[in-house]
Specification:
The protein is of the alpha/beta class. The chain is built from 8 helices and 5 strands. About 55% of the residues lie in helices and about 10% in strands. The chain starts with a strand and ends with a helix.
């Protein structure tokens, strides 16, 4: 069976960089944005539409009881969200079956549960997350610390709702993971190297 590592993460905890570095050190495949692009290839949806759906719980932004037209539109939106999730499951399983790999986010720990992946979750204190977001902040964004904190909380809330909707489990709770890493006082590079050493020792012949 392939060696599979899944990485869940709070926004600003460095999870994406951690997963990429870990895969590079171990010399195995890394999947993140590639999942979105493969879903786009397998559906009629645009890349932006898929990105808007991924990691957000299906929701209706208007009262569906207002009439039959609203109800039909609402049902279509939910069905499309479910279809994208089903495609996501298919793509993630196909990637995991190809070779050893690191997969970031997108309920991969749950989707691949029968393949017994090593499940990692990264989190950090808010001050650390704000600092890390500042480093990677787009030039045009220019958010205040208060606005950035609000954004971080909202992204994490969306991720939690999405995860819980499709898995029935609580996002970020330690019982659902094999290793939880507080990246507040450690660089992502240090954390990735430490975990990589564990895996290299564990799988040593």
């Amino acid at each position: 069976m392939n060696r599979i590592i899944t990485v869940g993460r709070e926004f600003g905890s460095g999870g994406r960089e951690f997963g990429r570095r870990l895969a590079e050190i171990l010399g195995i495949a890394y999947y993140d944005q590639e999942i979105i692009m493969e879903i786009v290839n397998q559906t009629k949806f645009s890349e932006q539409y898929v990105r808007n759906i991924i990691e957000q719980k299906p929701a209706i932004s208007f009262p569906i009881h207002a009439g039959r037209t609203f109800n039909m539109i609402g049902n279509t939106m939910v069905e499309q969200s479910r279809m994208v999730y089903q495609k996501q499951c298919k793509v993630i399983r196909e990637m995991a079956e190809k070779s050893d790999c690191v997969i970031v986010g997108r309920c991969a720990d749950y989707i691949l549960r029968e393949m017994r992946p090593y499940r990692i979750f990264l989190y950090a204190e808010m001050e650390s997350k704000i600092k890390r977001c500042r480093i990677n902040e787009p030039e045009h964004e220019n958010l205040t610390d208060k606005e950035l904190q609000r954004k971080i909380k909202e992204v994490d809330k969306q991720r939690a709702r999405y995860y819980e909707f499709y898995t029935g489990q609580v996002w970020g709770v330690r019982i659902n993971y094999d290793l939880c890493i507080n990246s507040t006082n450690w660089t992502v590079k240090e954390s990735a190297e430490a975990v990589a050493r564990f895996f290299m020792d564990h799988y040593k012949e």
